[in-house]
Amino acid sequence: MCGIIGYIGEKVEENLLQGLERLEYRGYDSAGMTINRGGEFVTYKATGKVENLKKTLKFNDDLGMGIAHTRWATHGKICIENCHPHFSSNGNVALVHNGILENFEDLKAELSKEGKYFYGQTDSEVIAKCFDRLDIKSLRRVLGKLQGSYALALIAKDSDSIYFVKNKSPLYVGFDGSQAMVASDPSCFVGILTEYYTLEDGEYGRINKKEAVFYNKNNEKIEKYITKLDFKVSYEEKTGYDHFMIKEIYQSRIALENIIERYKQEEIINKLKLLKNYEFDRIYLVGCGTAYHAGLIGGYYLREAFNVDVFCEIASEFRYKNLNIDDKSLCIFISQSGETADTLSVLEFCKEKGGKIVSITNTEYSTIARLSDICFPICAGQEKAVASTKAYFAQCLIFYIITTFLKGKDYILPLQNFKRQIDFGDDNILKPLAKNLVKYDKVFFIGRGVDYITAKEASLKLKEITYIFSTAESSGELKHGVIALIDSSVPVIVIATDEKLFNKTLNNAYEIKSRGGKLILFTSLQIDKDIKENFDYVIEVKKTSKEFQSLQMILPLQKLAYFTAIEKGNNPDMPRNLAKSVTVE
Ligand code: M6R
Questions:
Q1: Do 405 and 445 have their domain in common?
Q2: Is 419 part of the annotated catalytic residue set?
Q3: pTM score > 0.85 for this model?
Q4: Which of 393, 412, 418 is nearest to 272 (CA)?
């Protein structure tokens, strides 16, 4: 992960800081900045969030050049020594890195033998120590030594350019005659530049205010297409809310409205038609974390509609399964960011095998979107909180649309009806429940069928922002082992939306009750009073049509996770050890 940025122009600190704030979703373990002013480096570093770095900065409006970094620690603890930028031994070259250098141990041993001293433990510092001077020749020499993923931005005391390299980590560059920039995400250019270049793997070069020089992986000088910065990056504020997470849960309704509007357009209908014309005999749905759970929901929709094998796979496990990918495979990749390294590497693998590549993403300019034959946008707007909420909701809706279109049915009217019915749950019930949940050190979720998928997503949400141990089990599986963990210290959240499965789920709930477990029911079913009495809490969720019931159910469960995190005093937007975009495998 990590976000990198470089800038040449006026107000360097201010522009780099703004970029770092936009890149903070990529990691917030530490942040740092180095400015070249009149041939000398001025460096600022701080552990923790960008706001900590901001407090140390001395702003200067003059012309200058600098690089900056926001870190998600991979190698080496979170401390100032490991905070980027890193420097060459003679102090002439400064560098910021996003990615993982796989052969850093070997290189470090080699450099140590040459007498080079390392002040920290990062793989990135090893790259910096490979340099003494900065020009295309020395950049090429160092690149020849590197294995792994890296987007780099480098400056030197005696150079007027930012040098850059991209390999398996995203990087974009732009200039306009008075300023130049490189960044992990083109959102950093908004308000500064109007056009940018997208680098491909193996490309490198240098940029200053007047020119950009590009080379490909074969060291040939190349011309690149420039892209207009035509997307609006709306920098969401928390306005009216304490945190982005709760705002984004409520924005699920806006995502649905956006989807209804966009998915009426010819542009999207043509994509759906293209998909319908594909011949395939297997479908693979691939993602990580919450995006994988959206894939499970997608699998549930698609299997109900078609007689075709649907495999839902966790991206990081995909390659170990020897799956049979060929031109009859429809491979659908789900990713909010469109940059998740595990998902991206499976996409590249499936593409090479001839699979048809479709993506469902919130980031239409992302690498995953660019590499897809068809990309379906989820129209959720920027999602800032690390815990994915509205994106999950929107990804599931896109699966509903794809399935319904392939069945030849209308999807707009059912979506409009759903929009009118959406219910976010009653805070007067959810908040006291959250107050109670914080007393426990573990929480179980159970469900059957589609409710088991909702249980998985609800459990992930709870653990990632509250740090309470939580796991989801299919109701029927409990008695095969997990029930051994149940006693009076374990609350179990039972999810029940399917009338046909309710009696079985209820029996499983009673098995828990007999062993002293606390029972919390989240249901959209009409339930008799005497049944309700067996539960410590009953949260009744509004009923909607069957295909949307699991989406309706996740909303109060997301809020429960949020309220519990607040009760624990955690910042739900930036949970510990996590980042919004996971660009390392
Ligand atoms: O950007 P992506 O959708 O590819 O991200 C995948 C996961 O890293 C992500 O969904 C993660 O699990 C969320 N933090 C969960 O809330």
A1: no
A2: no
A3: yes
A4: 412
